[in-house]
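Supplementary notes for students who missed Thursday's class. We covered one full example, reproduced here. Read the sequence, then the structure, then the short commentary at the end.
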Amino acid sequence: MAAAPTAPAAAGTSDVSTSRSPWASSLPDDLVRLVASRLLVGDLLDYVRFRAVCRPWRSGTASPGGRGVVEPRFHPRRWMMFPEGNGLYPGHPNLHGYVRFFNLDTGAFVRAHIPLFDDHCVLDSYEGLLVLQRDHDTAICLLNPLTGDILDLPPLSTLLPQMRQQFTKGFRAQKRLSLLRCLSTAATFTDGVVTVMLAIERFFCVAVATSQDQQWTVSTWYYAIGRPLLSAQGKTYVVHETSVEKTLEIFQMDTPLPNEGLQEPKLIATYRLRGPVCFVECDSEVLVIGHDSVAFECRLLVYKLAYHVVERNKGLLNRWWKYGGDHLRWPVKQWKLRQGVSLHCLLLC
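Structure (token representation):
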């Protein structure tokens, strides 16, 4: 494999070109900004490369440096940290501080130098941002791996005094912290203030803090969960399988805005599906995937969650369309989607 390009440590801060290109510098400023905005919608790295062409293009467009976390437009949404395998975890001495990232749309690789892994561990990711925990003080951090921007949040250890009743006597603090690290992250970004909500999967509760807080606040309620979580667009979705009629209930937990309190999970959709059930985010759409029965010849069903939320509000939740409506269905053994929907899109988006 050819050597992967290296992502800049702080995108937009280095002066790559020293001479002006005549045709580039002659472009109108409004056209430069238009092209840059189109590139930013697609991929942050393309935007960074565009700004590196010449000084006029950099001066006429916003720099991601210093804004890579607080402004969602600079989030590397379609980039995923690539597992090296063979025991080469992030921060392994043989990697020399470098980590590779994989673009889910183009298949491209970039190599970023992230020395933070010497004393941080990865807990989760959200919209391409890495959720890290610092070793010595358990502080939670959000890191944009392509710009190098980092945002500090309160230490995870501030949850321990608030969750004494959840722990069995005799648990040491280090053991208790390890139980809190199994989490799912959602966040909102409003006027430079970042609010993060952690769904702590082992204890069925959530904790919330902003970039201006000194400690996390634990919810006074608990959520029911029977399936993996999904966090997208500032919301966390959970699935609960009821004991009556074997229906699946989808609950939504919203990340509060600054100066707002946590709201209890709300039921947004109900499905007659058999497990295993999972969520998939595809082009900003949340899909619910399950089976229509437990038989060997069962069919795989794919639902658009947004469609059912709208129909539920209209009182029309039980409306079914065969194709092109609220769901698609096809034999599991066939592994082929109809109506032009690709399996690649379903499984990888």
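Commentary. Helices lie at 22-25, 29-42, 44-51, 55-59, 173-180, 305-314, 343-348. DSSP finds seven helices and 20 strands in the chain. If anything here is unclear, bring it to office hours.
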